[in-house]
Design goal:
Layout: H1 4-18, H2 21-24, H3 29-43, E1 54-55, E2 60-63, H4 67-83, E3 104-111, E4 114-123, H5 132-144, E5 149-157, H6 164-181, E6 186-191, H7 196-203, E7 206-214, E8 219-227, H8 228-238, H9 256-273, E9 285-286
Parallel strand pairs: 1-9, 5-6
Antiparallel strand pairs: 1-2, 2-3, 3-4, 4-5, 6-8, 7-8
Helix pairs in contact: 1-3
Length: 288
């Protein structure tokens, strides 16, 4: 018996349990069957690049854990930021450090072996978050109630190469590392005010800090906040369901069963390697 068949049945049960009737009721059984067949067949594909955590037909995402990858990420950040008139600073290469208590995880989205997107997950530590340079007062109430804080920064996309699918998976993987792996509860993002509408309308963020000049990029910024539990709930409701009725940007995230399998694989690898943060040796979960 194909060992992937039980996985398919678990996936189908996850779909039925996790998806609101309002969406699943309009999703034809043949479409569910097609999604599962495609997912199972892809898991048997031997052509998965081992460096990627997730690999699809037109892009892959991995941790930038080597000098060459970090250099490519920095080149993309510098190029995209300069196009928008931002200054850039070279980020510390903590993700290369083996051992424990790593506080940054930088993800790299690639297409045809070219870096087309990146985002960095900043975990809380003794020095706090970068966002507290400007917004310590706004973040303080979350610390007072013992929330586990994190931030996303250095998001850069080559918009001609990095589509909605890649952006959705990139952001979702960042959420997985922050919330499912490191148990963070509250996410903060400093963004240029002209980009805030996307985060508010498409991802449900709230503005909690007014406009100030961010010295790291010498550009205006506002502070956004979202509970990671809320993001996970949206993934359960909408992730992976690209049907006409589903208008949510979360449809570009992974489906709930894909997330579950990926989290299990990452945790298993962490248990074997005893690292605080996964590195590029995590076996890829190939999808769609």
């Amino acid at each position: 018996m194909d060992q992937n068949i039980p996985i398919a049945f678990r996936a189908l049960n996850a779909v039925r349990a996790a998806t609101p009737t309002s969406i699943l009721g309009r999703l034809p059984h043949r479409q569910i069957r097609t999604l599962l067949q495609r997912w199972v067949s892809n898991r048997k594909d031997p052509k998965v690049d081992e460096s990627y955590i997730v690999q699809k037909s037109d892009f892959g995402i991995r941790v930038a854990d080597m000098h060459a990858r970090i250099d490519r990420v920095e080149m993309l950040v510098t190029r995209m930021y300069r196009q928008r008139g931002y200054e850039t600073q070279v980020a510390p290469a903590e993700s290369e450090t083996e051992g424990t208590n790593l506080k940054r995880v930088t993800l790299e989205a690639c297409r045809n072996n070219r870096t087309v997107g990146t985002i960095t997950v900043g975990l809380d530590g003794p020095d706090g978050l970068n966002a507290e340079d400007l917004y310590a007062k706004e973040i303080a109430p979350f610390r007072e109630r013992s929330a586990r804080l994190c931030e996303f920064n250095r998001l850069a996309l080559d918009v001609e190469e990095c589509g909605k699918d890649a952006l959705g998976y990139l952001f979702h993987l960042a959420v997985i590392f922050a919330h499912r792996i490191h148990r963070a509860t509250d996410l903060f993002i400093e963004v240029n005010p002209r980009h805030a509408a996307f985060y508010r309308r498409k991802l449900g963020f709230s503005v909690i800090g007014g406009e100030k000049i961010c010295r790291r990029v010498n550009a205006p910024a506002i502070l956004l906040h979202q509970e990671l539990r809320s993001i996970s709930e949206q993934v359960v409701r909408h992730g992976g369901f690209k049907i006409r009725e589903n208008k949510s940007f979360y449809s570009f995230f992974m489906a709930p069963w894909e997330e579950k399998e990926l989290v299990e694989e990452v945790r298993a690898m962490l248990a074997q390697t005893k690292l605080a943060t996964p590195n590029g040796t995590v076996r890829a979960l190939k999808t769609g």
